[in-house]
Amino acid sequence: MAMAVTTVVLIGALATSLLFLRPRTATFTYAPNTDQNWSNPTNWDPAYPGTKIPEGEAVVLYGPTQLHFEELQVEGELTIEREGNLSGPNTRIRVLPGGIIRNRGELQAKEITVEGAFENAFGASLSTSRLSTTDQSITLIQPSASVRVEGELRNQGTFRNFGQIWADTLSDPQGRLSLNGSGKLKAGRQARK
Questions:
Q1: Is the peptide bond before 97 cis (omega within 30 degrees of 0)?
Q2: Within-domain flag for 71
Q3: pTM of this structure
Q4: Is residue 67 part of a domain?
Q5: What is the rounded distance in angstroms from the CA atom of residue 11 to the CA atom of residue 72?
Q6: pLDDT tens digit sequence for 129-181
Q7: CA 20 to CA 156: how far, in whole Å?
Q8: Strand partners, 30
Q9: C-alpha to C-alpha distance for 6 and 87, rounded to whole angstroms
Q10: β-strand partners of 158
Q11: Cis peptide leading into 46, omega within 30 of 0?
């Protein structure tokens, strides 16, 4: 029995890992040379990727990055490294089907919609006023990672939490939010304290 459970856990972990692997055609690297503005071409190598990361392309952020536009769309890959900080308090971030965000640093946005995949890695933090996931999405919050939603967390996809989540309101109509291991969830305005 124990071997069957271990096998199922290993197969599940392998399937999740394979989901996060994507073939790349181009990688754009952000390292703030002039300022912290995403839209400044001098901060990018080899070129400025724009406000939509297409399928097959990857963007990697090192250092603090400010978003000064309405929406960032991720159909490819966006990785925020440990020293990275992506801040867009007035920006919506939309992870399209097939897209993925790997947050290893800090991410702040007005609203985040996950239709693809989102990983908040070990020790990373996410802060937003609204986090919503759609039917086919997968969201993974690693141990020691935190998610703070100063509004609604609406889950319709698969949401695996090993870290800590604080949300003013929680909606999980299909019941696919799982608290694994040491995962914690605090909902309601009192949870912020």
A1: no
A2: yes
A3: 0.83
A4: yes
A5: 33
A6: 999 999 889 999 999 999 999 999 999 988 898 999 999 998 887 767 777 66
A7: 19
A8: 44, 61
A9: 40
A10: 138
A11: yes
